[in-house]
Amino acid sequence: MARKPALQPVERAAPLAERVYEMLREHLHSGRVRPGEPLRELVLAAELGVSRTPVREALARLASEGLVEVNGRSYCAPSLTGGDVEDIYELRLLLEPEAARKAAQRPGGEAELAAIREALAEAERAHARGSAAGFIAANRRFRAAWLALVPNRRLVRAVEIYAAHVRALQSLTLGDRERQKRVLAGMREILRALERREPQAAADAMRRYLAIARAAMQQVAGGLSERKVA
Question: Which of 10, 60, 159, 197 has the largest CB neighbor count within 10 A?
């Protein structure tokens, strides 16, 4: 007698669910959603032109990643405090220097660095023409490019999750031209360490780079908290 399988075949998830998740994730990261703003399934479904089911699934997934907050049976955009930012950067400082170290130890040749160099050049051009949106986009491409050199994809995923927690605040931090200069200097330092294949220098450069971001995020989070109290 044939043994009955213990598990049933899993149906493939509809591509729509993934697209809704990605669109809501980008919406949250755009800086257009206010901290604490309710995320209503019905409203979001109508704007996206879909049923409530993929929206509900996407919000639950975003909540599991810490990108939205659960408020009873509903969801809202997260309100990051200074303590939240400190917790996030404590984790980023554990993860990202190690990821940079592994990127500097990569096998391969010069071609792998081309995307990093181009993202840095784009950031420099955006800074020169005063485009905050262009600078933020180039900064994100720089991150994606150096992370592509990290062989441990689980480490990459962890880095991406915690970086995403503060991504919505980037429009408030990376729009400052003086801060952009410091960020560019940090990006150049990371690239140099990767070019020279110096793991310790890459890890140290990443720590200094994250320190710039942490100070900026703390300042923004403090300002948002004061505004809420007022």
Answer: 159
